[in-house]
């Protein structure tokens, strides 16, 4: 069986990489912290011009109709540059939700998303705070087992601070009397699938963040000299970064498998997503710790860009289910009486 | 008006190149390859001419092994209409490339041929000029602005003393400088569309050209490492060192 990505998927990744690494410099991220919304409408339009906002929008609505497996490497690239815009939420969670809801709602909003004229954001209540709700033209909000499709005048927001200055978090309260688009048994599978996609998006971004921090550390330790030679040549420093590289490699496969499982509708997808989220966020967390270590005192400073990626990694670790909740999901899948064990079931 | 654009596959400009251990050539193992940046500017200019309604078709040509089809596909994703690969194994020197391009020019009969002023691997800066000599077309090299006006093309050139504008009668050859334009990014939908655009493969024999090398690469070596800087005590010492050691004043 061939586990490699297709040529087309790699071309998409390279195109997204060229754009994101060319346009999303850390200076641009720092500038966004000082704006009211923290978001950049011009950048969102650029993302649309490249075709990134419409990646998962069906072709009939002006998109490319790609799936989770096609998108996973793009989400990774978003993580690598710590993209502040809510692209991963929109493309990986909100758009598939809209497609599943269907009808006029989807027909109205999906072409706008593909064209970059609207941001559709999903907040599915596992997290009490919704990121980027303030810039959502349509907010797909799950509460009490119901799914709401809220326009900006249909909910109230209260801002909450985040460890990551790039994040804008809000507590959402729908206005009284606003009706759900789906409720109860109809909403439940959609909300559950949305949660898995959200967690996958976090995992993929965490992979990108870990890679970025590792690359920064390798570059720094190759330049910084002590005792007459680069500190990267010292075994103790090498081992730190080798540990990160190993954790990253061990996280990569679970993330890609989770994307594949979701794309194929594998019933074990929740188990795979939980594994991916844990492995990738652990790798990102390790990368952050070790990167700060090898940067020495420089790593703690505001001027060095490392903290941009470190704080995003911390924030993602607690989004779309924290480590404890994903461990509990894995425990439920493999430790319950009668749970299938062995090849193809537990690994 | 048909525009022919030549593109070359080179090591990506972000990659720090290394010489092979035996010094026989540059090490290309596991190195990211891309379109030569000046060729990318040429593609962008041709696509902009098409978007303005000046050009009707943009044909992109590359000379090399099968792998150069990647760069042709990239150019197609950037907006070119069809591609031609002239299949040549190994490094073709500028004169051979110019002769092959002359064959393609005779076959396609473009009104305008746009090339990068040089490739970032060989840095020869010869192919456009050689093609001009072989085809007898007028040439506007180091272009920072290209304006097609009827049967003429006005090319603003970046020269040592400033800018020079020349008017060329079409068909003509233009080689691009860095400031001509800023190439766009390939969009995902256009990458998908590029797969369906036609790409013809020709051999040197199809173009009546014999691939023959006139140059032998003797040795490739990295530049000498810079020695560490020093602090000077005063201006007099600085001037002395600049005059007698560096010999720059």
UniProtKB/TrEMBL annotation, chain A:
Q: Which InterPro entries does the record cross-reference, listed alphabetically?
A: AcylCo_DH-like_C (IPR036250), AcylCo_DH/oxidase_C (IPR009075), AcylCoA_DH/ox_N (IPR013786), AcylCoA_DH/ox_N_sf (IPR037069), AcylCoA_DH/oxidase_NM_dom_sf (IPR009100)
Query: Can you give the residue ranges of the Acyl-CoA dehydrogenase/oxidase C-terminal domain?
Result: 193-334
**KW Flavoprotein (keyword) present:** yes
Specify the superkingdom.
Bacteria
Presence of the UniProt keyword S-adenosyl-L-methionine in the record: no
Q: Which cofactor does it need?
A: FAD
Gene Ontology molecular function terms on file = acyl-CoA dehydrogenase activity; flavin adenine dinucleotide binding
Q: Which UniProt keywords apply?
A: FAD, Flavoprotein, Oxidoreductase
Domain (Acyl-CoA dehydrogenase/oxidase N-terminal) spans 6-117
The record's comment on protein family reads: Belongs to the acyl-CoA dehydrogenase family.
For this entry, the protein name equals Acyl-CoA dehydrogenase
From which source organism is this entry? Mangrovimicrobium sediminis
The lineage, from the top, is: Bacteria, Pseudomonadati, Pseudomonadota, Gammaproteobacteria, Cellvibrionales
TrEMBL record, chain B:
- Name the GO terms of the biological process aspect: carboxylic acid catabolic process
The Electron transfer flavoprotein alpha/beta-subunit N-terminal domain extends over: 23-211
According to its UniProt record, which cofactors does this protein need?
AMP
Keyword annotations for this protein, in alphabetical order, are: Electron transport, Transport
Matching entries from Gene3D superfamilies are given as:
HUPs
Q: Name one GO molecular function term.
A: electron transfer activity
Instruction: Spell out the subunit comment.
Output: Heterodimer of an alpha and a beta subunit.
* Family of the protein in this entry: Belongs to the ETF beta-subunit/FixA family.
**Physiological role:** The electron transfer flavoprotein serves as a specific electron acceptor for other dehydrogenases. It transfers the electrons to the main respiratory chain via ETF-ubiquinone oxidoreductase (ETF dehydrogenase).
Q: What is this protein called?
A: Electron transfer flavoprotein subunit beta
Species this chain originates from: Mangrovimicrobium sediminis
